[in-house]
């Protein structure tokens, strides 16, 4: 294959001139530019774009860490991020971790080794302090409240406040035995949610009901089965994913459990499935979140920003008045 | 920042030796290797892994083209591909196109410009002949029947056969007015499905019912509304996505349309939502498909392979006997 020296020889110019043409440098005469283009075309010379980006100190790649690519919540974030990235001539390098620490470490190493220009971490198992130690190699943005961190940027919603609002809303509607369903019970977002629950139980003593490890529609069935075996059952559930809430509602319909009379359900996200099935839910602006995440990671300034996004309760049919 | 020449000077070795240590070349004495490591550590020298990969003629990146990252069907493919990629020290560069021709062209250009080693195209709008013309720059694999193509590899299921089977199955159950719902009505997979439908109508004349542009759960409601306005209605629907089938079933339940008495539904994919809601469906082995797609794209041999995967009818409750 022809290399840059061959092209220079064919065009009768210096290697520097060829390099300038490839990099769209202004100081090249039109005549020389044409000669170089002609030489490149005649041998179908392909510019190695990675090498060009590299010589300009940039990979034009943003790493995006997600635990599961197929989960609709992360799907929406990925969609928002890739849309923005494409508009700004960046591409997205997807790192699916399944919360495996080695995979998360790999993503951090890619930043260290300059394979990516920046890193968006949608959810993680590794400690934030470890993540922070890599911030000197490039911009890192997380999807959780990291507002007191000087080195890692964040875009987040206030999960303490949203849980607190939801719990008090159910309390006002006279629900007395409120539980919650969550993905994993570790991680910063889960911490704030659990804290809100604990604080609420401190003010309004009741039995605690926590169901964890729920991500998908079919997990709703498992939750309803678990509840059927409980002697004393919850009368309301906060469910941190609409897809799981839809699964719970469907399983309740099959099992003859009346929603909202026997069991109230509040979802999170406001996914289309929640609208369709009439599920009361907290709307989280995922697309906006994806856009903001990209803006922060691609931000050239060295300032680390923290941005909180508002969430809104959408009242539908899965909460009544007792 | 220290460069490779600085490290060589500090370690008292040649630049070649430093390069060999970075690239794990065997011909370096233990003594020199240690001296180089020490020098690198002392200035926190970070290997630019992209530059190393590049010097070895590989980006270690596989491009994956999907129209929508948030759609569960593509989510499953992405999950299968990224799992395999991670096992083989590759990473996935995600290109979300929304069927935009410029975005699809961009993906092909990335292969041409060596930013990626290979390209998996899960679905596309651009013509296969255009895709084929880029196959000289690297391996390309598509998710459709391209068995007569010499240059583009493929992993696919037989959509003609599956539609044909489903139509005859419904015919045997005495359904007489069968329609189908699909994502887009262009593309190779849609072509084979439509051909099976036309051939079936040739053998068993009936009115034709085709609903296109359906991707998500909420599209099911639109379909049921459209049907409610029809004077003569279909009595059975093939639905090319379980998620849409679930939306149709839910909308039927709300509207009082009895499934399977008034309307039979057959989905495709065998997503968890189909199992949960008792939807009769064709199981498509997505995870296996993702694995095979990666195997083909990373296959070092120059042979272009075509692999057809089997699909299976899973009988549940949305088809009866009339």
Automatic annotation (TrEMBL), chains A, B:
InterPro entries cross-referenced by the UniProt entry:
HTH_LacI, Lambda_DNA-bd_dom_sf, Peripla_BP/Lac1_sug-bd_dom, Peripla_BP_I
Keyword Chloroplast among record annotations: no
| UniProt GO molecular function | DNA binding
Q: Which domain of life is it from?
A: Bacteria
SMART domains the UniProt entry points to:
HTH_LACI
* This protein's UniProt keywords: DNA-binding, Transcription, Transcription regulation
Specify the HTH lacI-type domain's residue ranges: 2-56
Q: What is this protein called?
A: LacI family DNA-binding transcriptional regulator
At the highest ranks, the source species' classification is: Bacteria, Bacillati, Bacillota, Bacilli, Bacillales
